[in-house]
Structure formats: C-alpha cells, structure tokens
C-alpha cells in the first residue's frame, strides 16, 4: 500500500499527541513525587530537631535547677559547650548571670512572663540586620527562673544533623528567625512542615541532580504508556471508522476520475497495426496502482458493471476527441453482457460512433465471457452489428459460452484467453485445447485474436496456425493516450 503525506501526518499525530500528554503527565507525577518525598523528609528532619530541642531544654533546666547557686550553675554550664550566656532571676532580681548575657537580650525580658521552652528573640533597639538569638526559658519555680541564650550558629552546631545529598536544599525556621538555609527559604516554603511543640518549621527541597533523575525516570516510564495509548487510539479509530469497502472506493474513484485508460495495440499476421484494446487502470490516492485483477471482479460482483462501462465510454470519447488517425483502426471496449440489454445501449453506441468516425476509428465491443449471455443479449448483438459495430467474444474458453451458443451467435472475433496462449511450448494438459479453439474458429469462419502473446515462440506458433491477430507484451505494452498520439497518428 502506498504511504503518502496524509498517512505520515496521521501517524505522526497519533504518536506525538499521546507522547506529549504522557510526558506532561509524567512530569506532573514527578513533581508530586518530589514534593511528597521532600515533605516526608522535612517531617523526618523535624522530628530529629524536636528531639534535640527537647534534650536541650531538659539540659538547660537541669543546669539552672538551683537558681541561687552560681558556682554550681557555672560548673554545669561548662558541660554545655554550645551555651555560653545565662541568667537566673527571682522576683525581678538577678541571682546569677554570665558576663555577656545582656549583650544579646534586654533587661525588659526579665519582666515578661515567658513560657518554658525555646523562643526566638531580638533586642528591642536592635536593627533588622542584627542577629536573632534563641532564648531557652526554664519553668518558673519558688526558687526562681533561668534563661540561656544561643546564637544561631551555636544552635546549628548543637543540632549536629547529617546533611542529605538528595535533599540538599534545607531551611529551618525558629519562630520568625531563619536558623539554617536562608538562601533556600523561598524555594522550600511551599513544602515546609511545622512543629506542634516548638516554634520550629522545616522546609526541604530535592537537589537539582535528584530532581533531574526523578523527572528522567518518570519521562522514560511514560514512553511505553504513550505507545500503548497510540495503539489504543489507532484501534479505536479503526473500530469507529467505517469499514473499508472496495466497492465504495470504486464508486468514489469514478467520481474523482481516478480511473484512466491505456491502449494496447493489436497486430495482424503481417505485423501491421490493426487496432487497440482499451484497458482500464486505477490509480488510487492511498493504495497506489490497483491491479485490474482486483477491481474488475469487484465491479462484476457488486453490480457496478453498468456505471463503470458508461465511465469507460465517456473516457474513450474524451481521450479520442483531439486525435485523427491516418488510417482506420479498430478500438475494442470491454462491455458486460447486461450492457447489451441496457436502455441506453443504442444512444451510447451512436454517440460513440459519431466521435469515432470523426477520428477514423471503428468500434468493437468485447463482450466478456465470464458472465452468461442471455437470450435478450444474444438478440441485441445483431442490432449492434447493424449499427456498424463489430462484436468480439472476450476471454473465450474460461467462461460460460457453450458450443451451441457459438453456432447461434453472430460475432466477428474470438479472443483466446492468455491462459491458453501460455501453453505454447509447455507440456500441459491444456496444450491441445489451443489448437482445438483455433480450428473451431476457422470452421465457424471467425477471426481470432490471441491475447497475452509474450515471446516469439508463441507469436510464430499462432501465426503458423492461422491466428489472424495478436496482442501482448511481445508486440507492445499498453500505452497512454499520449503515447498513442505520438506513435500512431497524425493531427
């Protein structure tokens, strides 16, 4: 089958559209997967930070459990290397403190009621560029309350959390302060998770390499799905598209003038041109060149013989309109037996003969023998011959014509089918049949046209046995009307 641009576009769209949507869906799923895993990683990281924060709060509470005992506090604080600045107070009075505590916090902090836990803090008179710190407050008791200060680097060092190659973009917020990964804050905010216990929020995002690998995996996984969707779409299109009908294509072919005629020369025993046979050819837009062995039986089986015959006559007249032969030739046109009984038989033949006379042609009707000639058709043959039209029985020996019918019919030519000509020089059971047909035609005083002559041996055999006319590739192939014009006539 011929593959044209329309087919190329169809299969390109059939492949690309599912591929586009599959890849797009794969990228969407990859984003959902990356975000989900990033959120899960953030939640896991948050649990680790919460545990560390809880341990820190417990350690600070233990270190400041004796608010009035400064030496004990100092010794205990030495065991917490990440915590350097502390203070204990009772009823607004300072009990113990490190030297630089108020470098980080305001005195007003001590007057506030602060819940036990970890809080983000910045001095009241500090500008926005100054560093926020973490303040860890112990539970207030009758002995007093304690506070410690941690800088962000110190708290990060205390956390001592392992980094992840897959989720390298990590941000930790403590209240409004960004402790870790401030440069990634805008990117990971969407996937951040918050602690119910502390003012901690963690956001994580996959590394660029992890994103690329995940997207590549989903895109590659979508390829087989796209192919399956393309196949499914093709099957659905084929299922819901009307089934291909050769008969319908033939009807459309006649409407679109896809059928054309070629003309095969017929030569006499003297090797001089006697005439032509018009042979129908079909150039389908998608199937390409369709063999007559395919479309002719379909035409006969689907009752398309009559419209097709009218199409052929119209095409013959159009082809011959601009020609004029220097001598009179015969042009054979194949017709089905029902054409001989059609209502427009006489009108069609008279119109054709008028045009043929103008270009110096005689018309021969080649009645195919593959279909049975009824009584009415037999009677019409005489009327056709009275109009000056010659009649030939085509494909003799492979159809329905009986010997008794040959005696009743009045016709001018007997065309011997190629299958009998092929037996020349071949040891075949059909070999004697050819000579019998030739002898029968001579006894009935009917001229013989042998079809399908392909080599010199066949041509010589037929000529020696008195076969008047021959056609076949040995003499000439079927040719276009342009070739007929250039080789066999004069304007």
Automatic annotation (TrEMBL):
Entry-linked SUPFAM superfamilies: EAL domain-like (SSF141868)
PROSITE patterns tied to this protein: EAL
Domain EAL: residue ranges: 243-491
Pfam families: EAL
Transmembrane segments: 9-29, 215-237
UniProt keyword list: Membrane, Transmembrane, Transmembrane helix
Cross-referenced InterPro entries: Cyclic-di-GMP_PDE-like, EAL_dom, EAL_sf
GO molecular function terms listed in the Swiss-Prot or TrEMBL record: cyclic-guanylate-specific phosphodiesterase activity
Protein name in UniProt: Signal protein
């Amino acid at each position: 089958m011929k593959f044209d641009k329309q087919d190329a576009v169809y299969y390109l769209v059939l492949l690309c559209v599912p591929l586009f949507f599959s890849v797009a869906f794969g990228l969407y799923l990859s984003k959902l997967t990356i975000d989900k895993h990033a959120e899960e990683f953030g939640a896991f990281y948050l649990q680790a930070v919460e545990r560390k924060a809880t341990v820190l709060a417990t350690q600070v509470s233990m270190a400041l459990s004796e608010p009035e005992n400064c030496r004990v506090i100092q010794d205990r604080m030495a065991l917490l290397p990440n915590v350097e600045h502390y203070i204990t107070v009772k009823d607004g009075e300072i009990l113990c403190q490190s030297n630089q505590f108020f470098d980080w916090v305001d005195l007003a902090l001590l007057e506030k009621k602060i819940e036990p836990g970890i809080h983000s803090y910045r001095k009241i008179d500090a500008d926005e560029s100054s560093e926020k710190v973490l303040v860890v407050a112990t539970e207030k008791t009758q002995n007093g309350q304690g506070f410690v200060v941690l800088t962000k680097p110190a708290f990060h060092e205390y956390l001592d959390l392992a980094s992840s190659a897959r989720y390298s973009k990590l941000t930790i917020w403590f209240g409004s302060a960004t402790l870790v990964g401030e440069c990634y804050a805008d990117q990971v905010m969407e996937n951040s998770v918050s602690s119910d216990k502390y003012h901690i929020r963690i956001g994580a995002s996959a590394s660029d390499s992890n994103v690329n690998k995940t997207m590549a995996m989903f895109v590659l996984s979508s390829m087989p799905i796209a192919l399956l969707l393309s196949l499914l779409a093709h099957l659905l299109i084929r299922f819901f598209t009307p089934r291909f009908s050769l008969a319908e294509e033939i009807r459309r072919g006649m409407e679109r003038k896809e059928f054309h005629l070629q003309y095969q020369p017929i030569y006499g025993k003297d090797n001089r041109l006697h005439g032509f046979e018009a042979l129908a050819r079909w150039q389908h837009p998608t199937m390409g060149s369709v063999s007559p062995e395919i479309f002719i039986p379909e035409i006969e089986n689907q009752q398309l013989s009559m419209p097709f015959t009218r199409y052929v006559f119209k095409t013959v007249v159009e082809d011959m309109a601009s020609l004029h032969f220097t001598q009179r030739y015969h042009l054979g046109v194949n017709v089905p037996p029902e054409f001989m009984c059609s209502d427009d038989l006489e009108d069609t033949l008279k119109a054709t003969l008028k045009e043929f006379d103008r270009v110096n042609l005689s018309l021969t009707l080649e009645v195919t023998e593959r279909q049975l000639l009824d009584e009415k058709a037999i009677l019409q043959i005489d009327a056709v011959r009275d109009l000056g039209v010659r009649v030939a029985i085509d494909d003799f020996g492979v159809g329905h014509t009986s010997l008794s019918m040959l005696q009743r019919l009045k016709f001018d030519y007997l065309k011997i089918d190629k299958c009998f000509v092929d037996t020349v020089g071949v040891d075949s059971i059909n070999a004697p049949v050819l000579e019998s047909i030739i002898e029968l035609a001579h006894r009935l005083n009917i001229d013989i046209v042998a079809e399908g002559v392909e080599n010199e041996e066949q041509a010589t055999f037929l000529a020696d046995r008195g076969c008047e006319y021959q056609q076949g590739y040995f003499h000439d192939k079927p040719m276009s009307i342009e070739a007929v014009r250039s080789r066999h006539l004069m304007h």
